[in-house]
Amino acid sequence: MFLLISSQHNNCSKVEGKISFIGVEFLELFNQFLQNPLNMNKTKIIRGLPFPASPWFTIKNIEDTLDFVPSDGDIVIASYPKTGTTWLQYIVLQITSRGELFPTFNDCLYKYAPFLEMSGTSVMDNMEKPRMCKHHCPYNMVQKNDKCKYLYIYRKPEDTAISYFNFMINLGHEPELNEFFEKFMTGDIAFGHYFDHVLSYFAHKDDDNMLLVSYEKLQLNKKEEILRIAKFLGEEYFASLSEDGELMEKVLEHTTFDYMKKNLNLEHPHPKDHEGHTRKVDFFRKGVIGDGKKSLSSEQLERLKNLAMEKLKGTDLINEWIEE
């Protein structure tokens, strides 16, 4: 999940002052963001994979993420961009805190669930156990620990593509859909080819410390999926949710898109521009299934389906994703 910034006016002024957070001057970074938006359309190649060419993603932080070895008991959430990372992150936080922990984005980023490519790995040193972090790196590019838990969330490719496309628009870019679609098909975008990314984790679907989470199943059978996630994280979490109906309802409510949109959208630290428009930090767009089929042409959908059948041949994803 990324920081989404939308504005009714493109002329963003510099934020006055600084706030130090876990050793990070967040508003200074925010000012850099306004001057140099997170451009997913431009990439830098590191160890063969394209990463966002943005001051928010330093080469050092990316290299440190790839070299980071999780500690015993750590919880690692991995994903491709725009597949439900933040949603899963808050579900895990709600489960492990028994419905109590619902931190702001800033607190999450540097305290409760660092996004390693942005925050760096040193923030993990200040965290209490069980530690949690997230990243968008393929399985084969990161270091592993058999005694930590990995959760990987994935989503239908057409919905992922359109969510990624709209994400770029929300960042202030104006990509052309057909051009973006071609880049999605070839993997010429930040974090590479979606199918390769998914396959890198599906190759380990039977590992005891790996849980694959379908965005669609989480949408359609949320309670059952949350219980499945809780059981994976620990029997004590599963027992708490199973035996306490009030707690289960609390977790379900706190992880609805309406609740999260209402409670996680933040106003820009300098709330109004010179024309009086309030800028918002938006973390969610629609959170629906099927947006891709409404936005892509029939020809594009057919090409994406054919590529999926070619790349995913022999996997369970064929039956899960491909509708005959």
Q: Which of globular, elongated, flat, extended, rod-shaped describes the shape? A: globular
Terminus-to-terminus distance: 31 Å
Total helical segments:
16
Uncertain residue segments: 1-27, 266-274
Strand order of the largest sheet: 7-6-8-9
Strand count, sense and closure of the main sheet?
4 strands, parallel
* Spatial extent as radius of gyration: 19 Å
Order of helices and strands: EEEHEEHEHHHEEHHHEHHHHHEEHHH
Can you characterise this structure?
This is Sulfotransferase domain-containing protein. Belongs to the sulfotransferase 1 family. This protein has 324 residues and is an alpha/beta fold. The chain has 16 helices and eleven strands. The protein has helices at 26-35, 59-67, 85-96, 105-112, 116-119, 157-170, 177-186, 194-202, 215-220, 222-233, 235-243, 245-254, 257-264, 291-295, 298-311, 317-321; strands spanning 4-6, 20-21, 24-25, 43-46, 49-52, 75-79, 132-135, 149-154, 210-214, 266-272, 278-282. Residues 1-27 and 266-274 have low confidence and may be disordered.
Condensed summary:
This protein is α/β, with parallel strands linked by helices and 324 residues long.
Which structural traits does this protein have?
324 residues; 4-stranded parallel sheet; 3-stranded antiparallel sheet; disordered N terminus; 16 helices; 45% helix; alpha/beta
